[in-house]
Design a protein that fits this description.
By secondary structure, the chain is α+β, with helices and mostly antiparallel strands. It folds into 3 domains: about 40 residues, no CATH class; about 40 residues, no CATH class; about 80 residues, no CATH class. A 3-stranded antiparallel sheet has the order 3-4-5, covered by helices on one side. It has a 3-stranded antiparallel sheet with strand order 6-7-11, with no helix packed on it. A hairpin with a 2-residue loop joins strand 6 and strand 7. The termini are far apart.
């Protein structure tokens, strides 16, 4: 037969206030939780301080998307004049302006990429379609799919059409 001790659940009595043993255990557990949490946080911060800095998340995602496949070729603008070029199973980092056909495009803005026209494209913040820009400039239909557009990487909105619609911070020269 198991005998349980018969002890008083009140650890401390101060007038009408009674402090029970289980209340003290909750308090002790909370204090230990806070102390151990601070200890682990301090250790993790010290460990992170010894690691080399990581790339910004958007840059990591851009590179991961570029390296996800080895089929064909692809280019990713990494900002500040740096781009990664993947051709089949090789990746190279290039610095300087983007070359797109006869165009040399330079920008100081980050988060831009160069691509060709797609039906339905519109200028960023405007209602005018790129097709209307081409028609107004008398660009032949056969050349529209070869004309470069500077677009925002995230929203895919057209910022500039080299030679037709200029944007601050984007410089395009036809060579």
């Amino acid at each position: 037969m198991l005998v349980h001790p018969n002890f008083d659940p009140v650890a401390l009595q101060l007038g009408p206030i009674a402090v029970r043993w289980y209340g003290l255990m909750y308090l002790l557990a909370f204090v230990l939780f806070v102390w151990l949490g601070k200890l682990r946080a301090r250790r993790n911060l010290l460990r992170l301080a010894g690691e080399p800095p990581r790339l910004p998340r958007q840059l990591e995602e851009t590179l991961a998307a570029l390296l996800a496949t080895t089929e064909g070729s692809a280019t990713a603008d990494l900002g500040r004049g740096l781009r990664a070029v993947r051709e089949y199973d090789e990746v190279a980092l290039e610095r300087g302006p983007v070359r797109f056909g006869p165009w040399r495009i330079e920008t100081e803005r980050e988060g831009l990429k160069v691509r060709t026209w797609r039906p339905g494209d519109r200028l960023a913040g405007r209602t005018k379609k790129i097709q209307d820009v081409f028609v107004d400039a008398k660009i032949p239909r056969s050349q529209r799919h070869e004309w470069p557009l500077v677009v925002e990487r995230d929203s895919d909105e057209v910022v500039a059409v080299p030679g037709l619609v200029e944007a601050p911070g984007v410089k395009a020269v036809r060579e």
